[in-house]
Design goal:
Helix content: 40-55%
Distance between the termini: 14 Å
Radius of gyration: 13 Å
Number of strands: 5
Strand order of the largest sheet: 2-1-3-4-5
Order of helices and strands: EHEHEHEHEH
């Protein structure tokens, strides 16, 4: 069975690098994209993306718009999205979830919490 892939969509390569390092150490295979459009292209190519870690604050298309676009796509609508954001104010989590995210992790990322959520959504 192919390894479940985690797709990281973040416009900051340092965030991608740090997340990949942590997830690879835990045995996950990761792909990354620096924009939502690039992320969509990755999902078109790979059928085994199990979960998307979506940065909510990106130029061009932000995470909210990207999740909305994914929900309209037959190929992407069932892939869970974990919102990853530096916005940790009251209401931000609810806003992400109501936009269609399956879960929410604030930056700086608590690795244990992130792994717990990934496990929950990729069972």
């Amino acid at each position: 069975m192919p390894q479940k892939l985690i797709l990281i969509i973040d416009d900051d390569n340092r965030n991608i690098f740090a997340l990949k390092a942590v997830l690879k150490a835990k045995g996950f295979d990761c792909l990354s994209a620096v924009s939502a459009q690039e992320g969509f292209a990755v999902m078109e190519k790979h059928d085994n993306v199990a979960i998307v870690l979506m940065d909510m604050m990106m130029p061009d298309m932000d995470g909210y718009q990207a999740i909305a676009a994914m929900k309209k796509s037959a190929k992407m609508q069932n892939i869970p999205v974990l919102a990853v954001t530096a916005q940790a104010m009251v209401g931000d989590k609810e806003r992400c979830l109501s936009a269609g995210a399956s879960g929410y992790v604030s930056k700086p990322i608590n690795v244990d919490e992130l792994l717990m959520q990934i496990e929950n959504f990729t069972k």
